[in-house]
Structures are given as C-alpha cells and as structure tokens.
Amino acid sequence: MSETPPNTLQYRFDGPEDAPVLILGPSLGTTWHMWDRQVPELTKQWRVFRFDLPGHGGAPAHPAASVGDLATRLLATLEGLGVHRFGYAGCALGGAVGIELALRHPERLASLALIAASPRFGTADEFRQRGVIVRTNGLDPIARSAPDRWFTGGFAAAQPAITEWAVQMVRTTDPGCYIAACEALASFDVRAGLGSVGVPTLVLVGSEDQVTGPAEARTLVAGIPDARLAVVPGASHLVPVEQPAAVTDLLVRHFSTAWQPLPETTTGHVVLPAAAPRPPQAPAVAPPQPAPVAEIAPAPVPAQVQGPPDTYDTGIKVRREVLGDAHVDRILERTDAFSKDFQQLVTRYAWGEVWDRPGLDRRTRSCVTLTALVAGGHLDELAVHTRAALRNGLTPDEIKEVLLQAAVYCGVPAASGAFRVAQQVIREETTPPE
User: 3-state class of 57 per DSSP?
Assistant: First the structure.
C-alpha cells in the first residue's frame, strides 16, 4: 500500500522483490481487485504492481485531466520506487494508459498487453453524456448498469456476488474523478499514432464485448506493427473477471515470450530486474493466437470544412467540445456552397475567438449565453445551449437559477418559453439509461 501525493497513484506490490516488474492497469469504475484472480499465477514469475485510478478504491480524489496525465502520474510513482523498466497490461482505460506509455516512453516498456481497449473509445459525446448523468444523478445509475456493460447475461445471473461487487465498486467511486476520467476518454484518440507503438503487444478481447469489441481489437492489431490478437470466447468487457483462467494463461504466455531486451542506449540508468533476460520457465512455443489482421486499417478522420488555419482549427475543436460531435456533424453535413462562408465565420469568430478567450470559463460563458438567448427569444438555440451548459458543468438547478434571473430582466413571457425548452432538454439529458 502507499501514501498518495496528488502527482502519483495509489498502488500495491505482490510477488518476489527480485522479479521483473509487471504492471496491471484497471478499467474505469474498477479497482485493482479486478486483477485478484490473475495475481497468484503471475507472481510466480513477476513482481506485480497494481494501481488505482484517482478516486477509485479509496484512492485520494485528485482528478486526472487526460490519459496522458494518468500515464505521467504512473511514471512519477514508479520513479519514486526506482522502477525504470516493466511489462504493462491494462484493461480499457488502463489499456489507454498503456498505449500512451508506448507512444511517449517506449524505452520504459518491455512488453505490452491491451485488454478490452481501443485507439478511440466510442465518441466524445457518449462519455460527456455519461458525465452529465453522473453530475446530475450521482453514480448510482451508472453503477446499476455496470453489470450489463461488463458481463455477459449468463455470467451476471450465475455470479450474483460478483455482480453486486461490481455495482458497489462503481457506486463507491468519487463522482468528480469518474467524470474527469470520462472526459479523459472523450478526448483520447491515438488512431494516427498506432504505427509508432514499437513494443511487442498482445491485444486481448472478449468475444461478446459490446463496449470495445473484436472490431476495435482488430483495429489495434492492424495498426501496431508487432501485435497479436486473442479473442476469449464467452466473455464481455471485464474479461479478466469473467474468464480469469483464460486471461491469466494468455498473459503468462505473452510476457514470457515477448519480453523485449533492454536497449543498450539506456546504459547508466538504474534498472530493476524487469530488464533481465526472459524467465527460464518460459514456454518454448509461441502463443496460439491468430496473426494480425493487416487489411483492417485505422478509421480515417472525417474531412472538415476548410478554413483559415489560425482560428478555424481552434474554433471547430471548441465548438465540438461545447456542442458535441453529433450536433456539429449535422451542421457540417448541411453546409453547402451558399452557407459555407457563414459556418466558417461562426466557427472562427464565435468559437475560435470569443469562446476560446481566457477571461471567462465555459460555465460562465454558458450562463451568459443562456440569458442572451432568452432575451432574444431564440428557443431553438436555447435548446442547443442548454445541452452545452450541462456539458460545461452546470447542474439543472444552476440552469434554473439562470432562467429565473433572466425572467426578472428579460420578461416573464420570454422566460416561460425558455423554461419549457430547458425542462425538456434537461429531462432528456439527465434521464439514466434503462
């Protein structure tokens, strides 16, 4: 166990002190206990290091702004322990941390395993919507739906104790850290960089995973030069919990046979036994996994309306972050030769300049925008910006206060229509999924 400053992570070690270090990274909403069934076998060859995400498993609630921030905190933790080289296996968000390490610090990794991972997790809108639900309703709706996302129906029915454990694990997570982790996943997209992952990689996925399934796994395998694919039958998203024996066997085989030697260029660093030669008990045969599906390429990034490179690129980024990808995509799809110049003007001026100014934060700008739209009677735009206000961190109660204030200064009839629109939007956006 550890005491945890804000720039590091809560961790624990298991296994012999003189063994190579193998790190196990958790999924969003879980704790290091998701790996409990793997530890007994893995500690026969490795010193296993597990960590908790901020605000998970009782870890201090210091939210991380991005996947890169999590990777930086992990490295700071390892630096303090003198661990300079290691193998890494991560599930979902933990897998994203592993990809980040491989891209930024390849010299630290001896081998990599990505479980239920993806170069881009769904859409940014999906994760930001989840943040809106948590901010409004707390974590209980997310916790109750976790078994449906994580396990097959048969497993959940047959293992009620594990299912309840999963619910409680999410329910006891710090909401602010959960929302921050959703934002980190919303902005994570490494499709263009997969070819730079230079470490031997196992990509492992459950055949029934509906969150990051075999299609996402094949995209990783196609993009990473030295990657192998393993599909575990009868498992969903949290495959190390649902099929522990199969996952353990695959990890042992991979890390025993694909432990990359320490490059000579790092001579002079203090290196723990993680850089040592392969363990003597490594099996002589290669893991029985299919070859990479080379013909599947990373998804192309959609072309965007061209504009001046200075404020247009910034504007389209801010516009998507505030209004959501789906809304902006609909606008761009409807853009033609007649409306193109207007959309470029809006993107450059409103979003690339005014919304990106540092003088006000986005919550405050949402308050100002809602009031101005009430005053102008622009109810269609009010609906759009009510959704944006929720995404920017305003609660329904705070939006109500803005509209009450607008009723005094803009008139009761204008506010009456605004309340009807905002009420409908808030109901749609904050109703937990069935």
Answer: coil
